[in-house]
Design brief:
Blueprint (H helix, E strand, L loop, with lengths): L6 E2 L4 H16 L3 H17 L1 E2 L10 E3 L4 E11 L5 E10 L6 E3 L4 E9 L9 H6 L2 E7 L5 E7 L7 E3 L6 E2 L4 E5 L3 E7 L4 E2 L6 E2 L5 E4 L6
């Protein structure tokens, strides 16, 4: 059986090519230790920007994970930054070894894209959640429920990539961006969502079902 090909996120190509070029120069100049180090670095960068295919659950109510990583927070709170209402907040921490491509959790239309420069504290800290640089999507579902998905920069993750734009129609599991080198993604969900996860659980973007998005009947 032919193995599926693992693609690379396009944002990684400049880093891979630059590292590969430096490695080649070191090899040509017979700087053997530097060339071997460069080869290892190029290999790691290539691996970091991997973008494997994912199988989206065949469930119309499935709310899937927007990121690979570990659930570090599940709480009910009042969100005064994005939705201005009581929400369920779910936070997923991505370490440097996780796939960093982010995906849409549930279909809908993007109402707002908000980017805010900020600090670069550790992404899994409370201070990082409040003060770090972020990019937030507010999405309206077909059932007229709003939810937010927020990319948060981390201590060494200093570049958020978001390809989504206001007015875009998005689908479950659709790739929309990434965060380079360790970070977190926060979800702000309607209270009606029935979560199927627990704190500490590991999840995969586009595949792991976080819960059931109960859509109001017409």
């Amino acid at each position: 059986m032919k193995k599926p090909r693992i693609s690379l996120a396009r944002e990684g190509y400049p880093f891979i090519l630059f590292s590969g070029f430096i490695t080649l120069i070191c090899a040509v100049l017979s700087y053997h230790i530097a060339a071997l180090t460069g080869l290892a670095v190029t290999g790691f960068i290539t691996w970091f920007f991997r973008d494997p295919a994912r199988v989206v659950p065949d469930r119309s109510d499935a709310l899937v994970s927007p990121a690979d990583g570990k659930i570090i927070l599940i709480e009910k709170m009042f969100d005064d930054r994005f939705l201005q209402e009581q929400v369920l907040k779910v936070s997923i921490f991505m370490n440097i070894f996780n796939v960093h491509v982010n995906r849409i959790p549930f279909p809908g239309q993007i109402e707002q894209v908000t980017f805010k420069p900020g600090a670069f504290y550790s992404a899994d800290s409370k201070r990082g959640a409040l003060h770090n640089e972020y990019c937030a999507l507010t999405i309206m579902t077909d059932g007229k429920q709003r939810y937010g998905v927020v990319q948060v920069a981390g201590l060494i993750a200093r570049r958020i990539v978001c390809r989504a734009e206001k007015g875009d129609r998005v689908q479950t599991g659709q790739r929309y961006g990434l965060i380079r080198f360790g970070s977190r993604v926060d979800l702000y969900l309607p209270l009606q969502v029935e979560l199927e996860i627990s704190k500490g659980q590991k999840v995969r973007a586009g595949e792991t079902v976080l819960g059931r998005m109960n859509q109001p009947s017409a």
